[in-house]
Amino acid sequence: MPRDPARAGHRRLRRVALLGAVAALTVVVAAVGDALWVVHRMPTVAVAAPGSGEGTSYLLLASDSRERLTTADRARYRDGNQPSGERADLVLVLRVPVDGRPSVYSLPRDLYVGQQRDRPHRLGLSLQDGPQAIVDSLCSDVGVGVDHVLIADMDALVGLVDSTGPVTVRTAAPVRDRWAALSLEQPGLHRLHGRQALAWVRSRHPEVLVDGRWVPDATSDPTRTSHAVEVLTQVRAHLDDPMSVQRGAWEVGPRLRRDRGLGAAELLRLGDALGAATRANRLVSVPARLSGTEVPFAFVTPETRQALQPLRSRSCPAPG
């Protein structure tokens, strides 16, 4: 049967997005894991994890909450569609088996779950009710039990870039994105500091100045992935000596939240396993049936259940 080019392209795009997301968390965890003394600066969250059975599973979340930002940044990143609360922009599970190699699983944040409990919702929205709620949803609705939780705040990248050095990007024309607070007034090379780098990574609806008029950038990447990879590759290169790692760790530590059982030794183990999985390209993008509606939904399919099978836990009976 001939391959569907659109479906193949979508799979490639999702895999690139997963690589970019894992790269982001690898940089953040590496900065903290190599500087154990900074762990005490990381806030903790109360989570009763159901456990994963043999081995260890880490739930890694990227938060879109503005509530832990400064007053100025809350105004800068104000979103009328989300006046308050917290959602998971990214849901990853790092699985470290007792005998075997670690792997990273990316679950769609819009996965539609909870119907069996008469509590239908999108997985990423569970974080609105706190970390415990998304841990419980994974267990009750997907059959996945985890042992530890790590949450990266929206501005974690800001601290890393400001502490390790600016990144460089090139544009062919002036670029702006009012939703992402991005403004690059001249074409050519740009040295971006923390907030500018975050704006570059978050930009989803950029405009370019053409003949004196701002028009949508037809070449932009709506997944934000290409910009993320561009910035994070440079950030990783800046972490090239113990002093730069310490500076990055000192800045990013308060922008991460960990469960109370995720201490220094366990955090180092997490960082080592995440790095090993990334280097070996053991990354699984969990499939789902995507809706074409304005509000996105990702529906569970037999392929979804099959991909999640290595994450199943006896403490979390799989839903029917």
TrEMBL record:
InterPro entries xref list: LytR/CpsA/Psr_CW_biosynth, LytR_CpsA_psr
Pfam annotation, one family: LytR_cpsA_psr
Domain Cell envelope-related transcriptional attenuator: 87-206
Coiled-coil ranges from the UniProt annotation: none
Family to which the UniProt record says this protein belongs: Belongs to the LytR/CpsA/Psr (LCP) family.
Family matches, as PANTHER family: POLYISOPRENYL-TEICHOIC ACID--PEPTIDOGLYCAN TEICHOIC ACID TRANSFERASE TAGU
Protein name: Cell envelope-related transcriptional attenuator domain-containing protein
Source organism of the structure: Pedococcus bigeumensis
